[in-house]
What we know:
Layout: H1 20-32, E1 43-48, E2 51-56, E3 59-63, H2 78-100, E4 105-117, E5 135-147, H3 151-164, H4 166-172
Antiparallel strand pairs: 1-2, 2-3, 4-5
Amino acid sequence: MSTDTQAPQTITTTLRPIDREGLLGFAEKGRNNPGMRGTNKVHTVTEGQYRTISHVNGHEVVVDEPLHLFGQDTAPAPGEIVLSGLGGCLAVGITAVATWKQVKLSKLELFLEGDIGNSAAWGAGGAENPPPEMGFQAIRVKVLIEGDASREELDQIVQHANFYSPVANTMRNPVDFAISLTD
């Protein structure tokens, strides 16, 4: 009778990696041209009530409002889409920074909440609030992250990615905004 016992093994799978060399090349282009800008383009079409379909590089993003706000509740509300974009941008940044620092991630999940005000009823006769009192008043993000680094190193990665996040910085800082009728 064999008394060999094997110690249990911990098997950790890592998230699908990005191209580190490509990332380093993209970073070098940014260092060499810090004023470099790109342009995101979206075409949004209203189907009726509050349901819209935004066309984005061959993809569709559907937006609606919940029933209590007179929508059909067929898709996320605009504010939820904004939080989704923020979560996606932060996840991209965290993945990029971890890749740059050669940290392999095994789990990355973001939980976002935003307190939003709409007592103005979109400007349709509700409260006459000034713009700073409308929209998101507070946003909270919790990050569940695991990888081959200490908790402190993982926190540094998250904080670094947050500092450089284009979407987070758009939400934190004033941005030039123009709206007009088409020609």
